[in-house]
């Protein structure tokens, strides 16, 4: 069972037995992530909502026809550092981070996943890796595939939203909406605002759209700091944005797959979809249907990822 102490009131929160999920699978004992088996099922993807030029619809039914595996946690600095050490991979630099003195987000030439910038954990092993591009994330999944012989990849947008919802239908995958966010996720809250954080990606509701509670972290949180959802997944909402496989097109095109596959285009994809919000994102952008959109080579101190893989014979 999962317990954590909420900063406001120091109340203990118990993840109820109903949230228990089957034991995760792990393909190696050293650097392989714990993977939850996500069952097949149906859901309504998207919403009649969004911001200017950022529609989240049209809502459409999606059927996940086969179970798949999704990492229970976001990839950590320790995970990613092991990949870099094993392969000599040259990870991206010039990460975009918040400059507290100016309140602006700018590219810092020497910033990378080890030194990501304000609030991102300074490369601590159990913090989610950030300052990694979509291409860096793809290189990491390719390494895991080679190491294990299993088909690792990034999740599709549909798989991500289905897994984040875990059977729920609201804007947030818990009861009580944004007002209860601090119990379940690391989003822009009173801790962040007190620390001087800005809702630099505030979205609807204004640049200071913090939730009226305290989640215990002014910046990023160690992975798994909050209760998991019904599929056994941590931090699907908040903490850091997560890259997905899809080429971003909005509104959802008529030919978008309805079976959980990623949407791709012929030729170069100008922007990839990112999901889930972050510790410095306003509540509106932490909803399960909100869609980010960024170039494949974008590196940001609030962008990370988690991995998926196909199951072979149910394993």
TrEMBL record:
Gene3D superfamilies for this protein: paralog of FGE (formylglycine-generating enzyme)
Top-rank taxon, per record: Bacteria
Source organism (scientific name): Novosphingobium humi
Residues in Sulfatase-modifying factor enzyme-like domain copies: 32-309
Keyword terms: Plasmid, Signal
Pfam families: FGE-sulfatase
UniProt signal peptide: 1-20
Protein name: Formylglycine-generating enzyme family protein
